[in-house]
Design the sequence.
């Protein structure tokens, strides 16, 4: 049976929602950290894509699944049960 050594770690699951609700977004400046020579073509391609809603849903699902897996790993899953010894047989 699988059990978690630190089950209180699952209290961290709503942390991204709390952070998004109560932290202020970063102000968008005019100068970026990265200069791209073909930015005008890149920005036109990003705004004219038809699958933006599907892509954002995919990103959201991936981000949440990664977060749930990280928190689950932090909770330290462990197998609990009767231990057994493996006996190696010769000639099989």
Sequence:
């Amino acid at each position: 049976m699988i059990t978690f050594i630190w089950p209180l770690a699952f209290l961290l699951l709503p942390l991204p929602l709390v952070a998004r609700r109560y932290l202020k977004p970063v102000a968008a400046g005019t100068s970026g950290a990265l200069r791209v020579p073909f930015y005008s073509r890149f920005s036109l391609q990003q705004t004219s894509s038809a699958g933006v809603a599907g892509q954002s849903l995919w990103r959201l699902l991936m981000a949440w699944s990664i977060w749930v897996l990280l928190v689950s790993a932090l909770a330290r899953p462990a197998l609990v049960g009767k231990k057994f010894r493996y006996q190696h047989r010769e000639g099989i």
Observations:
- The beta strands are 2-4, 77-79.
- The first strand starts at residue 2 and ends at 4.
